[in-house]
Amino acid sequence: MSPTPATVVAVGAGQATVSAVRMLRRRGFGGRLVVLGEERHAPYQRPPLSKEYLRGDADLDDVTILDESWCGTNDVELLLGTRAERISADGAGHRVHLAGGAELVADSVLVATGVRSRRLPGVEGDRMVHLRDLDDADRLRTLLPGAERIAVIGAGLIGSEVAASARDLGVEVTCLEAADLPLLRQLGPEMAQVYADLHRENGVDLRFGRQVESVDQTASGVVVRTASGEVVEADLLVVAVGAVPNDEFARASGLPIDPMAGGVLVDAECRTAVAGVFAAGDIASRFDTATGRHVRVEHSDNASRQGAVVARALLGLPQPAEDPAWFWSDQYELGLQFVGHAGPDSTVVVRGSVDDRDFTAFYLREGRVHAAFAMDRGGDVTAARELISRGTPVAEAALADEDTDLLDLLDTVDA
Amino acid sequence: MTPESATVEWVAVAPLAELQRRKKKQVEVAGRAIALFLVGDRVFAFDDTCVHKGRSLSRGSLWKGKVVCPGHQWTFDPETGRADDQDDCQPVHDVLVVDGVVHVDPRPRQIS
């Protein structure tokens, strides 16, 4: 076991870094802690940027997760507006090179540089927004209330959350999606249809199988043309077509990159191939011991957990058993949550009422739950998570029966 | 009893038996929604509205002795209301069970 490092430098100031830094201090790490953030804002949460922050229901204070007073109290050096360029070896440790020539010496480095919005070529203009950072959200939040109609390209989580927030503000929305249904891979066909229906019921003009051919800004707004010749006019365009890893720092530092998923290859404890250098969050392609494959995930909860994994690894603490993947989205006053992986060929068993938007859909294969999608049923998620991680055999009828307590379906009831 | 608790105006909210099956129940005291939880043989009371995003805790679950919010799966210590790995604290109310009836202090406890 290597000794606890004296200096840890985190490159990137998002969720993974904040989680690592908070846990390090909470568990008594007494060394030097430096956080390098390229943006000028103190670390903030991204999930609200397409939801309550965008709608104006939350402000900067609500989304900030590591403020200067906390950093002062906990002796964390927060260097904002600071770009790190690469790491080089420095004896047994590392030298972190900053833009402008300054250097920091570190025993351990956490690479948590995240991802950025994927751009559509040629789509640039003051009425076009790629939503990723707080500055993007501020721009959209200023423009949105003045818009009568917006166009959204992409009906993934961010695109559909923006659509929902816009509808909440009374703005008309046309959403163009390339696939046949939204979130098809994550939700499977049956629930992706329910998800599409939810948006349509709330007034989103949702169009599938649309390839965007061109985007032009005019004097009064934006014109989007699809490959089939359809024309969509709007006051504002939001592009939400996925993200690409911010891997420049990792590449310049010689860290091995996942050729398939992109991002920095790390083991189960988030260690890169270079001793003392970790990667976590959206940038990390992490070895999954259950499947023997590397997986890169772009969700906030994943970043939090990986940050905690890094903190425990640095402190030599044991790692707890891994919970199944989980993400949430709040849309139209509904809390949506997904746990596990749907995968193909699942049987979907519904508990509750799809029509009332109050249900949990369980995804089963061979009589075992491997994923669940809860619509305003977050109370079922605990049991779903346990059913998934234990692989408990369950009867479909029992899952669907509201009078059965889900926790009673577990092998050992230790609630 | 301390002098403070002697001045508590306990409000009867529900028979204990109503908590036995689901282990949780939402009640209203003086216009305030309160969530009751039965953990082992003890009853705990929280403000029902989660400090995080305002979801109803009584629609959540109990897991390993913790209250789990249905909104974003924050977990709370039933005794103190403290959220795991967060700076926030859910308001808690003192509870007294007399003759099988759950009583709640309408005023949240001051945590020092």
UniProtKB/TrEMBL annotation, chain A:
Its cofactor is FAD. Gene3D superfamilies: 3.30.390.30, FAD/NAD(P)-binding domain. Keywords: FAD, Flavoprotein, Oxidoreductase. Residues 326-409 form the Reductase C-terminal domain. Residues 7-307 form the FAD/NAD(P)-binding domain. Coiled coil: none annotated. This is NAD(P)/FAD-dependent oxidoreductase. It comes from Pseudonocardia aurantiaca. The lineage of its organism: Bacteria, Bacillati, Actinomycetota, Actinomycetes, Pseudonocardiales.
UniProtKB/TrEMBL annotation, chain B:
PROSITE patterns: RIESKE. Gene3D superfamilies: Rieske [2Fe-2S] iron-sulphur domain. It comes from the Bacteria. The keyword Zinc-finger does not apply. Keywords: 2Fe-2S, Iron, Iron-sulfur, Metal-binding. It holds the Pfam family Rieske. Residues 11-104 form the Rieske domain. The keyword Iron applies. PANTHER family: 3-PHENYLPROPIONATE_CINNAMIC ACID DIOXYGENASE FERREDOXIN SUBUNIT, FERREDOXIN-RELATED. This is Rieske (2Fe-2S) protein.
